[in-house]
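Lecture notes, unit on protein representations.

Consider one protein chain, 174 amino acids long.
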Amino acid sequence: MNLQEKCSKITAIVLDVDGVLTDGRIGYSGASGDEIKFFDVRDGLGIKIAMRAGLKAGILSGRKSLANDMRAKELELDFVYQGYKDKKEGFLQLLQDLNLTAEECFYIGDDLIDLPPMRLCGVSAAVGDAVPELDNTADIRTKSRGGRGAVREAIEWLLKERGQWQDVIKKYMD
């Protein structure tokens, strides 16, 4: 099966957070120790565009974070799986809970912890600054870095492969 055929089977986008939706840095605010993360608005719009195209979207993160919860709520993500140090376990749980097959998932990752779900899913992407070990598994590597538009770039690529990009962005172009 060629890559375009694999892309046509995708129904859900599974995103890592730290290093994918963010640049991987984590800060803490004053005495409260509240976690601070920065998310790229272009990635957010890309996710919303994918959802308008009929795809589910959500996160699978190794860490639990209030910042992740807040971003997921803001984007109205379909699913949030946090605290999975074993991403394979988290991915398999996600598949079971959402009644998905691995082939229906497009996974975007950046580090070694992401290899197990990337190997299982239908199509995968590594962000531009991902570790080189992902290159033998990922179907594409974005030019953009994690937290700097990589998710948007990967989603745009997927929707173009599926022949949906022009239809989905039509409302912005008119």
